[in-house]
Amino acid sequence: MQKTIQKRTLKTRARLFTAAEAVIEKNGYEALRVDEVVQAAGVAKGTFFAHFRDKDELMEILIGQKLVACFDQVEKGPMPKTALEIIDALEPIHSFMTSERYVFDLIIRYSGATAIAEIGPIAMCFERYVRMTAVWLESAEVRGDVSADLLAEGVQAFALQSMSLKYCALHESQSFRDRLEVYLNAWLNPIVQKT
Amino acid sequence: MQKTIQKRTLKTRARLFTAAEAVIEKNGYEALRVDEVVQAAGVAKGTFFAHFRDKDELMEILIGQKLVACFDQVEKGPMPKTALEIIDALEPIHSFMTSERYVFDLIIRYSGATAIAEIGPIAMCFERYVRMTAVWLESAEVRGDVSADLLAEGVQAFALQSMSLKYCALHESQSFRDRLEVYLNAWLNPIVQKT
DNA sequence: ATCAAAAAATGACCGCGGTCAATAAAAAAT
DNA sequence: ATTTTTTATTGACCGCGGTCATTTTTTGAT
To answer: How far apart are CA B101 and CA B97, in angstroms?
Structure first.
């Protein structure tokens, strides 16, 4: 069973990516139309779907790339030690995730791997989010009664909750940052009187 | 500015609902097609969109109805006192929310009110989730350093996180219930040594 | 009862994502 | 160099959600 990939294929694929990025640059993610991309790339519509399962797959790749860049940037910075520092450290990631409603929805939808075989780029970022945060929490000034991994998953849960509420008119009085700060203080530094 | 609603309107609307429910009963939510509904209801396609902004609006209403029924059932039961009892009490709600991938995605997408003016049925359920849980937590055996409202929002965040992971192949080893139990124990009953 | 105005229903039509049998181009076999 | 086989590309076509000018029905005024 051979499967030689022609170099023509790579060229076509590259042109599709370039075209898609240009289209997004102009009008954002939501407004992207497959027809516009293939026209800009100078290929037929069918070719698009020979390279990507569906429009979402292209989107997942492109958004995943940007997300990875955000993570790289965040990991270059210094290790945060407190809840507030963690929030600030994660800011570039959260900022991109909520840059467009369409982007946020797509990220949520693809945050889980459908099959173990194929973990998509966004699902990988969600894994990375927890791993990275867990490392921070390992040596941060936080509660020690539960594992850093568990704490990290909680941080993710609260960050997602805060981002969701950002799109909710009922809660727009409080800013994303303030809300997440309240959550994380309560999650990472509970003050409990022993009974 | 008058706007008399004819009783014909209500009849048509009712027929659309009945037809939609029948269609869903047969093949589930995801497979519903507007064409199938209007045919079953014996009306033209345009009529559908005179009654509902789009297909999602109908779905939101139907799924919202079911959700409300779940809440009513849950509120009939006894007040849970512990993390575990809370998980069990909420089970009917979580169960319906994850009954179909399509249903879960739609619920997430409409969990926030787009505009304050029109709070959709699902957004109302999300409010109700927190209100109800907060009342429970008011008199439950849980930490007292933060408000019951905040604790309730956390419960919601962790429940959503657990549900999301249910659809993630990378985390399917742990069951929804076990995962949520770990989260809620850490959230509601932290054990911290005073420094 | 008659007629004008408001409300509701209609269905041909459009946009856009996605398919697939036919065709072209490249690689391998001769 | 020629044929065969594999791989890529094409574009007409389809499904389905959603629109809108036109028609039908209802209502309220005379």
So the answer is: 9
